[in-house]
Amino acid sequence: MTVNKRIIAGILLLILIVGGSYFFEQITKAQGSRNGRLVPVIQHDETTAYLDAGVIRQLGRQEQEMNKDAGETGDNGDNEVSLGFVLGSAGVAGYQYIEVSGAGDSEDIKLGPRDIGGIVLSSNSNSTFAMADKAGGNRVIIKEVAKIYVAD
Amino acid sequence: MLDMEKEKMSADLKTPADSFIFNIGLADAIRLTMFGTLISVSRFVFQLPIGMPGHTSVYWMGLLMLGKGLIPKFGAGTIMGIVSGVLAIVFGLGKEGPLLAFKCIVPGVLLDILAILFLNKLESIWVGVIIGALLSWSKLLTSIALGVILDIPVVFLAVGFGYAALLHVIFGATGGVLAAVLIKRLKPRLASSWQT
To answer: Do B155 and A37 touch (CB under 8 A)?
Structure first.
């Protein structure tokens, strides 16, 4: 094979690599959203943040440290973080309501700014996270969160 | 018998390290070490706060290819990769810890293989584009693999992967072009003085 033919093959390979990378990203994101492992926070029809169980754990630790610094006790568990803190971290403010969808056939839940006070997100063992109502006796509202939509 | 041994010994003394490592002489190994050091130092010094993934590939892949182009021996890329990897750990570049060395070694090893596939014509602009882009992309792929090893979910690693791949390819290709131009200019001048 001459060098010119190898160059043409190389350029085709590069095109394939870039196209394949975009394809891989789309497929993985779609799969992750479907099984609740990658949860997009959508505002103005654009994804403003992605959440996963690791992020929830990390935010939970941050919230606990902030509460400790502020001298508040905070009643969240080790793998829990309040929904308000998560939304604030994602840069979401001044919304009318948020709509949280679950993986599979679970119903969508609408929550206004006043409703999210006792709501927490807690990581599951299978890299997903659940939404629970702390004020209502730690009742799990959505077992595996799949999408958070913010409406202005 | 004694004469033969003496002759052999004197020949050894004339060329004490013709095959220091990977059939590469000591002089070339030292030059490659210099290139490896330059790669790490350039990454350290020229890291720009422009928020574009892969922009270091311009000088990283450029220097890697320049070293291989000027010392076209099998193993040259690997030596530069190992040296830059060890130095990257020493300098504390990146967030991967000791695993960071793989990000430097993989493009080096790949360069040795690709140079053979492209008949060592690293002075060609198009070969520079292709090899530079592939090396840069291999670096990105190694980062993803390290992320998987470090237990980061694949879905999170995949976010922005297409954009990052495109930028890595562009910056790597740019580095490859620069290297090809420099190899074309420097190789004839260094050919006589850099012979081991």
So the answer is: yes
